[in-house]
Amino acid sequence: MAGYIVKRILWLIPITLMVIIFVYTILFFAPGDAARVALGNSASEEAIAEFNAKYGLDLGYFPRLFNYIKNLLHGDMGVSYYTHVSVSKQIADRLPYTILMALLATAFGLIVGLPMGILAATHQSTWIDSLAMAVTMFFSSMPSFWFALILVMIFSIHLKILPAVGYESWRNYIMPVIAIGLQLSAIVARQSRSSMLEVIRSDYVTTARAKGQKESKTITDHVLRNSMIPVVTITGTALAGLMGGALLIEQIFSIPGLGTYLFGGIASNDVPVVLGCVIVIAMFHGFLMLLVDLVYTVVDPRLKSSIIAARARKTNNRGVNA
Amino acid sequence: MKNEPSNKRRSQFSLVMRRLPKNKGAVVGLVIIAMLLVIVLFGDYLTPYDYYHQDYMNMFSFPSRAHPFGTDSFGRDIMSRIFYGARFSFWVSVGSVIISAILGGILGTVAGYYGGVADTIIMRFLDVYQSIPGLVLCLSFSAVFGPGTFTTMAALGITGIGSYARILRGSVLQAKGNDYVEAARAVKASDFHIIVRHIIPNAISPMIVSMTMGVGTDIISIATLGFVGMGIPSHLPEWGAMLSEGRSYMGIYPHLVLIPGIFIMITVLSFNLFGDGLRDAMDPRLKD
User: What pLDDT is attached to residue A114?
Assistant: First the structure.
């Protein structure tokens, strides 16, 4: 198992490298002259040439890429073309807000969504189920940034009980977390309901019931555990997505997270900023996906042996082929 | 003889057509989509104003008989703008989903059918591709392609290929194992023939469901791009851009924010309802 984890973590290196090359290539072909944007239209040709030489922008595709990767291996993500602030410092400053918001919203999604899904599945085809499904369908179709604006309208402008913008107090996070989390809870509820219903149909649940097992115990012991894998996947993917920063939510509530930084970088073709953010996001994504796979083995221990079996099979195949 | 149950094999299509009308959600979704299509095609004739007509005597008017959705900060009729904007949300999202499905579908089919090296390369590429957040890809492609309706469609379309490739690869892998594929191989049918005639028709259902849901997701992405001022050129009444414009005045004139948002939500909802119903109707385990 430890070998598996190490292998998965090492695998992140080539993935991240490919991500860098991929995003770098897109940005290389994006129109926009960084020097012109940074120095203004009235800048002299010499000043522009100097700027380009300073940041290595006068070099071609490959030298620029190699320079970037070389510096990255020395732990240097470069500086923004416009603010001249170190990218790694900016990311380190902003990451806590993004992580905090992502974790709180995911927790909210699970705390609200899971009981709703379980309730709907155990009361299939009753009014509880219909109501839960209608509500979740409604919330999963609602753009979270619009919902955020509605919340601001109600709680900040009319009732004046929550601050509309800012990031210092815990009260600043209530609306952003609800705006993101409610949509997530709808997705979690729908997923947990449908995978529970699938398990409820299976023979061992019928057997447990036939043996006179208490319904609540059947649900907790047999159904819940076996239906949680798709829910874990969805939650993990959502959390990974939120690590990229919730751009519009950050914009609406003026929270200095990763999303707005990254967007500024893309909009102004600030290559070091974008690459820096993308590297961090890709790493988080990789670790979270690994975590999801590890949670699988906790939820369903059979998968643990299947991972080991798959590894054994792979080695065997290699042996046969060689 | 007449009353004997027919042994005629029912096609998947006719089965779905029979089940779908029984699903309330799907019917509601389809009705809303039809209404939306009317707005998209004939929106210009449904309101007496042009979407760009500015009336400075009537700025920020609340919904009234003359302006059912009110007017915005330039005195422009919001209903006309919403109706005109519907075409972006509709065509761009449908177009982008088709682009994603075709490109992703080709990748998924090649990976699933041929396996081996092709599969490894495609799946590793997707690993990389999908570890970049969709919004980042979409914004970057938008920056490269520049603003515009078709460029936004292309940017969204290319961004979305990952999930379709994975879905189709999965269903192709399943379909590949069937006896009829083996039989087709035995009579030396070409790979192309086997894929188009035998594999795709049996692997397409999950794809159609996620395409329907994908339209909803892409409508939100278009609005997100519009909100931050990328994608559809900002002088056009795209719903997300309207939301962003109205945001500055929402404390006093909430309809500027409420109305575009409600339209985005209803449109997304209709595609989700329809997709949900479609999935149930296509589920072979739910026999009626």
Answer: 93
CATH of the domain at A130: 1.10.3720.10
Name the pLDDT band for B36 (thresholds 50, 70, 90): very high
Residue B234 reports pLDDT greater than 80: no
Distances from the Cα of B122 to the Cα of A3, A13, A211, A311, B117, angstroms: 25, 18, 49, 21, 9
pLDDT of residue A315: 54
Burial of A229 (0-12, 13-18, 19+ CB in 10 A): middle
- The dihedrals phi and psi of A149, each to the nearest 5 degrees, come to -65, -40
Q: What is the pTM of this model?
A: 0.87
Residue A103 belongs to a domain: yes
Q: Look up tokens 């997530």; give the residue.
A: A184
User: Domain-by-domain residue ranges, chain B?
Assistant: 39-47+71-282
CATH classification code of B39-47+71-282 = 1.10.3720.10
Which position has the higher pLDDT, B8 or A216? A216
Q: Report mean pLDDT in 10-residue bins for chain A, 322 residues.
A: 85 89 88 76 81 81 89 87 88 92 95 94 90 92 92 90 85 91 93 89 87 86 85 89 85 90 87 91 89 85 71 53 35
Flag whether pLDDT at B263 surpasses 60.
yes
Non-local (6+) Cβ contacts of A106 within 8 A are A181, A184, A235, A238, A239, A242
Task: Give contacts of B273 with chain A, Cβ < 8 Å.
Answer: 137
Query: Which pLDDT belongs to residue B286?
Result: 61
Instruction: Domain of residue A206: give its range.
Output: 90-266
* Cβ distance of B146 and A31 shorter than 8 Å: yes
Q: Which of B274 and B11 is assigned the larger pLDDT? A: B274
Tell me which chain A residue has its CA closest to the CA of residue B259. A146
Residue B175 in contact with residue A299, Cβ under 8 Å?
no
B181-233 per-position pLDDT tens digit = 888 888 888 888 888 888 888 778 888 888 999 999 999 999 999 888 888 88
DSSP B72: -
Which residue bears the tokens 């290699």?
Answer: A318
Q: Do B258 and A150 lie within an 8 Å CB cutoff?
A: yes
Instruction: Find the CB nearest B131 among A19, A32, A252.
Output: A19
CA distance A115 to A231: 12
B261 with A26: Cβ contact below 8 A = no
Is A9 an 8 Å CB contact of chain B? no
Please report whether residue A63 resides in a domain: no
Phi, psi of B77 (to 5 degrees): -70, 120
Taking an 8 Å cut-off on Cβ atoms, the answer to whether A143 and B129 are in contact is no
Q: How many domains in chain A?
A: 1
CA-to-CA distance for A187 and A234, rounded, in angstroms?
8
Handedness of CA A150, A156, A157, A161 (dihedral sign): positive
- Chain B residues near residue A248 by CB distance under 8 angstroms: 224, 227-228
- How many Cα atoms are found within 13 Å in the side-chain-facing hemisphere of B241? 18
Is residue A225 one of the residues assigned to a domain? yes
Residue among A279, A253, A273, A248 at smallest CA distance from A261: A273
- Does A295 reside within a domain? no
Q: What is the pLDDT of residue B212?
A: 92
As a whole number of angstroms, the distance between CA B181 and CA A166 comes to 61
Q: Compute the Cα dihedral for A117, A118, A121, A125 and give only its sign.
A: negative
DSSP E strand boundaries for chain A:
none
